[in-house]
Write a structure and sequence with these properties.
The protein is mainly alpha-helical. The chain is 69% helix and 0% strand. The chain has helices at 10-33, 36-66, 81-87, 90-107, 112-118, 131-142, 144-169, 180-191, 204-250, 258-271, 275-287. The protein is extended.
């Protein structure tokens, strides 16, 4: 679901969709420009498009920096330190990196091919407009400790299996399993069950360890997916609960004004809920008096005369 900062204004939506389209076209341009004959034939057009894009993204970054003090987050309220705090936030850094390669190429002698490829970083700007990315970011923050624990276990298993494989195979294949860091590549490929075949054990102990590592990898690689799936489910439950509380506050007097409907829609967009989910929450809130004692069982709350 796309929707900028959760605003429902038509102009804001139009600007959001324009920026989304521009980001997508930039990514396509970077991919096409890597094709040599297209780069030679249409190089000036690619360069002109990049200049226009950089100008738009630069203006966007400066406007976001200037208006950071207007955000609801109290950390950004100070005229100076608030803007500096916003400038080091993850999305602000992504916004800066999306235009920085262009300006670096103007003042620093660097490989222009690398600078052009770095423009693909602009795809991460889509995270600002994607509710799915916002939800996954919230899940990552929520499950940071669990994910960290899983990664720690994976690192221990990786070091242990690569060390054993080096011990078993180094004498038989000194040029393949040269050292433990080199053996780590085999361990990563085996634990993820990819099996490229560029490093293959030939000793009996090495093959036994390889089989055990592959079986162990099936379970170990599934752990992060399970943690993320559980976190995603919990995050959506929290968001539905927050929306339900907003609905109950709106329906306390048994009516719903147009202004309150608009607030609920903004809340829905901010939380990343679909219209179907929001409708289900609303229906449950008005059908169960114990959850919303003032709703009076209204299935279709009328629009009040005040606050319209």
């Amino acid at each position: 679901m796309l929707g900028g900062e959760g605003h429902d204004d038509a102009l804001v939506k139009a600007v959001d969709w324009f920026l989304i389209a521009l980001i997508a076209l930039n990514v396509v341009a970077v991919v096409l420009e890597s094709v040599e004959h297209l780069s030679i034939a249409h190089g000036p057009y690619f360069h002109a498009f990049d200049k226009v894009s950089v100008a738009v993204f630069s203006v966007e970054y400066l406007l976001r920096l200037w208006t950071a003090v207007e955000l609801e987050d109290s950390r950004f309220r100070h005229p100076l330190w608030g803007r500096l705090r916003w400038a080091v936030s993850p999305m602000a850094i992504i916004d800066l990196l999306s235009v920085l390669p262009f300006y670096l190429g103007m003042f620093v002698e660097v490989d222009l091919r690398a600078i052009r490829v770095l423009r693909v970083l602009r795809v991460f700007k889509l995270g600002r407009y994607s509710m799915a990315m916002n939800v996954m970011s919230a899940v990552a923050r929520q499950e940071a400790r669990a994910i960290g624990a899983v990664l720690f276990v994976l690192m221990v298993v990786l070091i242990f299996t690569s060390s054993l494989m080096y011990l078993f195979e180094h004498r038989a294949q000194p040029h393949v399993f040269q050292d433990i860091p080199t053996s780590m590549w085999w361990a990563v490929v085996t634990l993820t069950t990819l099996g490229y075949g560029d490093m293959v054990p030939i000793t009996s102990l090495g093959r036994l360890l390889g089989g055990l590592t592959a079986v162990l990898g099936v379970g170990m690689i599934a752990l992060p997916a399970g943690v993320l799936a559980s976190g995603f489910s919990e995050q959506m439950r929290i968001r539905r609960e927050e929306y339900r509380e907003a609905v109950e506050r709106v329906l306390e007097d048994g009516t719903m004004t147009r202004h309150e409907r608009r607030l609920l829609e903004e809340t829905r967009l901010r939380l990343g809920l679909s219209e179907e989910e929001a409708a289900l929450v609303l229906e449950q809130a008005v059908k169960h008096p114990h959850a919303c004692p003032h709703c009076g069982g209204l299935l279709n709350p009328p629009v009040g005369k005040t606050g319209e």
